């Protein structure tokens, strides 16, 4: 076992603190990664604070991991020492079910193994990227192209793929009118990606305070959802809406913005249900759908796409001692647009 420095939550009600965690020895198909940067996702906060159910503590979160390979197992073929690599929201799956065999490991019928707070196949509880090193089976490690710096690459492993996957699945591209609800960690990547795919992009935000940012990121239009005129002006005009907010919104009102056969896809994960008026769906043969992250193959595709188009997350790099402050700032929407931890600052 390898003992490494980390930051972990001792309980749902306490701040994260410096600690050490154990990593398994490198097996034949494993890769040891020296983590350089770890993004802070809103999911980290929900998880360690018990919003999504009880957890096993202490828990080191983090599923936006970028680093360098420092050791490989004897049978590893995909990666070598010195490679720039990333690890996202999952580190294992059954690899045998229909979804896994189709390259959709995120929808593993037996449940994929999350990067932290999950029971791995060997019975241990996974610990995440708020640490200096991690050991992951090679099949769940992706290559970070040279064209992307590691700090701006880290959030792509969650925020990037979470928005790229539905954009690709629902056919974002030239001639399509796409709206992004919320301009945060997920939303800013959705705007960048949809713009790079050639779509006409609209941001729907509570206010216009981030309008300049949204337009600079690639949006063609920016509207305040607090203004009732927005819903009148945009009614029946959109092909696809990506909802990135993790809060309750009036889904039925947003569905009315869609064209015939349009889709509203939820990637945010609010704790409370989102009621839907059936007539908002029936009236235009509209769809209300959900999407998780992408599979490993699609995650690699997303990274290559970002490198080709010069895309990375907008980040604020912080030392480990600022993690708890960053959590409070995320909850206050005071970040433009993703905090990334410099793991060299772990004691």
From TrEMBL:
Gene3D superfamilies: Medium-chain alcohol dehydrogenases, catalytic domain (3.90.180.10), NAD(P)-binding Rossmann-like Domain (3.40.50.720). CDD domains: CAD1 (cd05283). InterPro entries: ADH-like_C, ADH-like_N, ADH_Zn_CS, CAD-like, ER, GroES-like_sf, NAD(P)-bd_dom_sf. SUPFAM superfamilies: GroES-like, NAD(P)-binding Rossmann-fold domains. It catalyses: a primary alcohol + NADP(+) = an aldehyde + NADPH + H(+). Its EC number is 1.1.1.2. GO terms for molecular function: alcohol dehydrogenase (NADP+) activity; zinc ion binding. Keywords: Metal-binding, Oxidoreductase, Zinc. The keyword Cell inner membrane does not apply. It holds the Pfam family ADH_zinc_N. Transmembrane segments: none annotated. It is an enzyme of class 1 (oxidoreductase). Its cofactor is Zn(2+). The keyword Metal-binding applies. Residues 11-341 form the Enoyl reductase (ER) domain. It comes from the Bacteria. Belongs to the zinc-containing alcohol dehydrogenase family. This is alcohol dehydrogenase (NADP(+)). It comes from Arthrobacter terricola.
